[in-house]
Amino acid sequence: MMWSPAGATSFGPPSPTSLPTSCSPSSTARWRSPAAHRSTERLSPSAPTRERTKRTRGGALDGLTVEAHRGRVVAHPPPTVVVGIGASAGGIEALEQMLGTFTLDSAAFVVVMHLPRHGRSRLAQVLGRFTLLDVDFAASGIRMEPNHVYVVPESENVTICEGRLMFEGYGPTPRGSRNIDHFLTSLAREYGPNAIGVVLSGASEDGTAGLAAIREAGGSTFVQSAETALFAHMPQSAAPAADFQLDPGALGRRLMTLLVNKKS
């Protein structure tokens, strides 16, 4: 079951033209199992060993992400579950509490924040202190890996296409930003029931339509409880589309339980 803009008007989404509808103009907005995403990239067997090793990080081999590790090529399967986390004002504090509960499970986490480009330089480093997972800034075209947290700046509209994060250029100004909706709607389209959406503290309504899209696609949705948010408007707006409304610590623990159940 797919989300449509008309089906989510009760949640107050932005104009349908501002949300992603497909990976590319020729593709269809239909969920496929992540296992169906296969890359045609190959490592050239004729390339020198040193050069081949340099290029393995972030490359792909039969749908697997590969990297050089102590002279060996290590393959990582693509994540079967992707968690999209939207946050704005007051969201860093909530993220720190939530990340502290994360364990090594087979999921990739994508954080979309209303954060200006000039204010993001140390965010990944700061968040990395609170989790066992690798925390990095997202780059356009990167293939997601399990047990990684990818931080996307506010100024980018990002979508998922066949397991990769794709930037679509600068989004609107922070006051009217819908970057969270943009990403969560793409996540719902690509991962369907294996999509998980989270909306944390913020002062806008961004994330409401995206969370509704994930719920309509059969995924799971979480919202920070309004009474624990430094800015409650964003969680309150998204609450009707939430399966769970919890404080950040409890939210993280419930999310980990859900991921374990999805693996079993």
Written account of the structure:
- The chain has 264 residues and is an alpha/beta fold.
- It folds into 2 domains: 34-76, no CATH class; 79-263, Methylesterase CheB, C-terminal domain (Rossmann fold), CATH 3.40.50.180.
- 25% of the residues lie in helices and 24% in strands.
- The chain is built from 7 helices and 12 strands.
- The strands form 3 sheets. A 7-stranded parallel β-sheet has the order 6-7-5-4-10-11-12, with helices on both faces. A 3-stranded antiparallel β-sheet has the order 1-2-3, with no helix packed on it.
- α4 (179-191) packs parallel to α5 (208-216).
- The longest helix has 16 residues, at 248-263.
- The protein starts with 48 loop residues before the first helix and ends with a helix.
- The model is unreliable at 1-18, 25-30, 35-63 and 171-175 (pLDDT under 50).
Which helices and strands occur, and which strands form pairs?
Blueprint: H1 49-54, E1 59-61, E2 64-69, E3 72-76, E4 81-87, H2 91-99, E5 107-113, H3 123-128, E6 134-137, E7 148-152, E8 156-161, E9 164-170, H4 179-191, E10 195-199, H5 208-216, E11 220-224, H6 233-238, E12 244-246, H7 248-263
Parallel strand pairs: 4-5, 4-10, 5-7, 6-7, 10-11, 11-12
Antiparallel strand pairs: 1-2, 2-3, 8-9
- Overall, the morphology is globular
CATH superfamily of the largest domain: Methylesterase CheB, C-terminal domain
Strand order of the largest sheet: 6-7-5-4-10-11-12
Helix content: 10-25%
User: Which consecutive residue ranges, at least 5 long each, have pLDDT under 50?
Assistant: 1-18, 25-30, 35-63, 171-175
Mean pLDDT score, rounded? 76
Could you tell me the CATH topology label of the largest domain: Rossmann fold
Q: Tally the structural domains.
A: 2
The CATH first-level class of the largest domain comes to: Alpha Beta
Q: Please tally the helical runs, counting DSSP H or I stretches of 4 or more residues.
A: 7
Main β-sheet, in a few words? 7 strands, parallel
Distance between the termini: 24 Å
Coarse structural class? alpha/beta
Count of extended strands = 12
| Alpha-carbon Rg, integer | 18 Å
Strand content: 15-25%
The topology string of helices and strands comes to HEEEEHEHEEEEHEHEHEH
Per CATH, the architecture of the largest domain is 3-Layer(aba) Sandwich
